[in-house]
Amino acid sequence: MGRVTIADVAKRAGVSLASTSRALNGQVASAATVEKVRAAAAELGYIPDSAARSLRTRRTGQLAFAVADIGNPVYVEMMREIESVVAAEDYRLVVSRTGDADATVDLVRDLNRGYVDGLILSPLRVTDALVTALEASTVPAVVIGRLPDGAGVDTVMADSEGGVALAVEHLVTGGARRIAFLNGPADTTPGRFRHAGFLRAVAERNDLVSAEYSAEDFTIEAGYAAASAMFDSAEDPWDAVIAVNDLVGIGIMHAAATRGLTVPTDLAVVGIDNTSLTEVSHPGLTSVDLGSTRRGRKAAQLLLARMEDPELAPRAVRVPPSLQVRGSTTAQPSSVSRFASGEGRPR
Amino acid sequence: MGRVTIADVAKRAGVSLASTSRALNGQVASAATVEKVRAAAAELGYIPDSAARSLRTRRTGQLAFAVADIGNPVYVEMMREIESVVAAEDYRLVVSRTGDADATVDLVRDLNRGYVDGLILSPLRVTDALVTALEASTVPAVVIGRLPDGAGVDTVMADSEGGVALAVEHLVTGGARRIAFLNGPADTTPGRFRHAGFLRAVAERNDLVSAEYSAEDFTIEAGYAAASAMFDSAEDPWDAVIAVNDLVGIGIMHAAATRGLTVPTDLAVVGIDNTSLTEVSHPGLTSVDLGSTRRGRKAAQLLLARMEDPELAPRAVRVPPSLQVRGSTTAQPSSVSRFASGEGRPR
DNA sequence: ATGAAAGCGCTAACAC
DNA sequence: GTGTTAGCGCTTTCAT
């Protein structure tokens, strides 16, 4: 026997095709019909066909999540949260890589194939073409990141500036006066805004010495290489370094260890994103929490809301930052794991 | 204007609908027709509809990857590799959680909705119902893990036994005689086979003292808790502990640090999976590499091959293990990062 | 090489 | 409440 279709079920149940569809989908139908159809469907092992239903309803039950690198823990954490929110509404999640700027635009254009009902996108670089494509898209999209003011697209933003300010403040309180910022690629959204936050926070005080360095990528390896170069180039040692993200921060800690520098006494290190890596490193990495899981959740909720009502005015949600202090900036708790107390990272 | 369909393109190009389809899909068509159709499609911004095409062709261009927890780095690494292999063939990747055993079976049954062309599944627990569902599935599936002998399903297996033997051998060479195994849930595939490997490796020598403990989950937290309990219960200290995976291994290192035990001198620790976490911890975590990325790649290749030719006899591929030695078992390299030398983890 | 027409499996008007 | 029918957008016979 081939595929069991709704027609087979209808015949078996002795009712019309339409009634079968209605009964199966909880539309108006008499109890008797529902019963007959249910039984017939169960006997035949009927399973509705996605493609046929999608063609008819113009809905797929799928959402896409697109990021530059699914290997980065911060995206993994977002994805996990997004998956759990949308799965509760019976949506499946399709993962895509954004690739370069052109590929990202292609990805957005491709939405018009109708293979998903919505998109959550966290682009590393935002181009005009991307904004245009997003605004023109018939498929709802929400962006985790920063778009130009007035872009007609739902966005969920982190408060990078505020977050970095928390880090600077914390370091200064701990006695640091010479503070460096180790950026990633400066032409990216995180690179730009996190750096800007650093500049502003430093400018608000006049007793700080600061400088910026930059890693070629948002990875441990690139962080290690850039930190090594930084150590070579600086005449006087830095009191502290703020990394553009946790991966780069870990790279800095490795480089420091290689030089025989002790963290935090010789050098304090702060990461950004507060990923689970911060608790694996030793000492633990103090990190700015930009609310990745909350941003993921918010993005999913915004998307679901927009799909519900496409006429909604575009919204921009900003998630507040916080600072998670660990051993990389304060000597006390460095040898005692937080697992001892049973407290976890905020979820 | 609404959706641009192939009919619009046909009209614009002045040829029939059928010719338009053929021209667009590289079927037989005169150069002139192709040219006209191409131009018309470009002018109108035609984008083919996925659902309609899928309904007709019975293909979706999608593959599913299902695991227990997309947060576990080992699955992330597999997913990354799988995505890159299948994206090269223009497949999209749908991620799903396996959930409990029943949910896993439901997931496999649901394949018959036809929303994907194939599935890569890495189940934590394998039930008879799951094997039956897999064998009955009309949609090709490949399992990363262990199935009962003779199951008619493509599988990619790790050599857990061989891998754990490498770890034991390495520890013994380093002078360890009292070696514990810290398992995860014993009723899971990894729990069962990794433990079995330990038992066999230990049994092959008569100069070892050993014992098994077990964490409630494959996580850092559970590893920490179980290691703490282990430290409490053991009369004499262990020379070394082999963890069921890297996460549990990291948990052990945390617990050791909390007790004031120095790794590797007081206690050597070995993880399994050789995830990127092994390079974040300090000292680096020696780990058994079970070839997660290779398994991912192999699984993707097997799946693509089976979709190409469904008549293929089921295959079982076994990926060889290796051991990656780091500071958690040997004192020398513990303070110098591997990033100094520029060498990376095997890919 | 091209066109006419059927039909993939389903849902949604519409009439009863 | 139920049945008949049209049609979602596309690919693929089957003629020509």
What keywords describe this structure?
homodimer, alpha/beta, Rossmann fold, 3 domains, 6-stranded parallel beta sheet, 6-stranded mixed beta sheet, 12 strands, transcription regulation (chains A, B), LacI/GalR-like_sensor (chains A, B), LacI family DNA-binding transcriptional regulator (chains A, B), HTH_LacI (chains A, B), DNA-binding (chains A, B)
Can you walk me through this structure?
Chains A, B: This is LacI family DNA-binding transcriptional regulator. The structure is a homodimer of 347-residue chains. Chain A has 3 domains: 6-57, Orthogonal Bundle (434 Repressor (Amino-terminal Domain)); 62-158 and 292-320, Rossmann fold; 160-290 and 324-341, 3-Layer(aba) Sandwich (Rossmann fold). Chain A contains 12 helices and 12 strands. Chain A has helices at residues 6-13, 17-24, 31-44, 50-57, 73-87, 101-110, 128-136, 160-173, 189-203, 220-233, 246-259, 292-308, and strands spanning 62-67, 92-97, 118-122, 141-144, 154-158, 178-183, 209-214, 240-243, 268-272, 286-289, 316-319, 322-324. In chain A, α5 links the parallel β1 (62-67) and β2. The radius of gyration of chain A is 25 Å and the shape is elongated. Chains A and B meet through α4, α5, β2, α10 and α11 of A and α4, α5, β2, α10 and α11 of B. Chain A binds a DNA duplex (16 and 16 nucleotides) through residues 3, 5-7, 15-19, 21-22, 25, 27-30, 33, 48-49, 51-58.
